[in-house]
Amino acid sequence: NEWSSYHPHTNVLWLHYLCSKLLSMKYRSARGRGTKDARKELTRFSDDVLHYGSARDVLQNCPMFQ
Question: Which residues form a coiled coil (predicted)?
C-alpha cells in the first residue's frame, strides 16, 4: 500500500478497465447505427490504449480524441 510514488501507466490500465466494463454491459436500447459505431470505436480504443505510457499520452495522441 505504497501510494506516494507516481506511476502514470496505472491510469492507462484504469482506462482499459473502464472500457472493458462499458463494453460488457447490456443496454436496453442498444440498437441503431450510432450505437454500433460507438461500440466499434470503443472496442478499437480498448485494444489500443495499453500501448500508451500515460493518460496524457492517450489524450494527446489517440485518434479518438483528435
Answer: none
Residue 30 confidence (pLDDT): 65
Average pLDDT, the chain: 90
One DSSP character per residue, the chain reads: ---SS--THHHHHHHHHHHHHHHH---TT--SHHHHHHHHHHHHHHHHGGGSSSHHHHHHH-GGG-
Q: Single out the residue of 36, 30, 64, 4 nearest to residue 15, CA to CA.
A: 64
Is there a contact between 52 and 7 (Cβ–Cβ < 8 Å)?
no
